[in-house]
Design brief:
About 80% of the residues lie in helices and about 0% in strands. By secondary structure, it is an all-alpha fold.
């Protein structure tokens, strides 16, 4: 989903469209990072024993959070706005690739109940989307 937002952002010509897409990107990533850090990474660290890989993931999250905060404090058209969104997309794609090729295979080898964990992740995501979503202006 977020990858599609990044692609749409790169094709967008209108500042209002860019702002709406950047807002969607930032919200989705903040929620995703929070549920990973709260619910996925702790059991993954415990059961896989791969602290190095999870430490790297947390450092990547910190970098993404920094860029997100900068993007949220800016408006399209300001210097480096588009570049920051583009770099965020590149970092997120790299992070996803590492998770899919390295972390997820390790987690599948453990006895973590992935269905139960998936249900927890989905429920927490729904809660956070409600809590963190901007209040519509009427």
């Amino acid at each position: 989903m977020v990858d599609g937002y990044f692609e749409a952002f790169e094709a967008a010509l209108d500042d209002a469209e860019k702002k709406a897409l950047a807002d969607k990107i930032c919200l989705a990533l903040k929620v995703h990072m929070q549920i990973e850090e709260e619910l996925f990474y702790p059991p993954a660290r415990e059961k896989t024993g791969d602290g190095n890989l999870l430490d790297e993931a947390l450092v990547e999250h910190t970098g993404a959070k920094t860029l997100i905060a900068q993007i949220e404090a800016m408006l399209p058209g300001q210097p480096l706005y588009d570049a920051k969104v583009k770099v965020l997309g590149e970092q997120v794609r790299h992070h996803v690739e590492e998770e899919e090729t390295e972390l997820f295979p390790e987690v599948r080898e453990t006895n973590i109940d992935l269905e139960a964990l998936g249900a927890k992740l989905a429920a927490r995501k729904a809660d956070l989307m409600t809590l963190l979503a901007p209040i519509p202006v009427v």
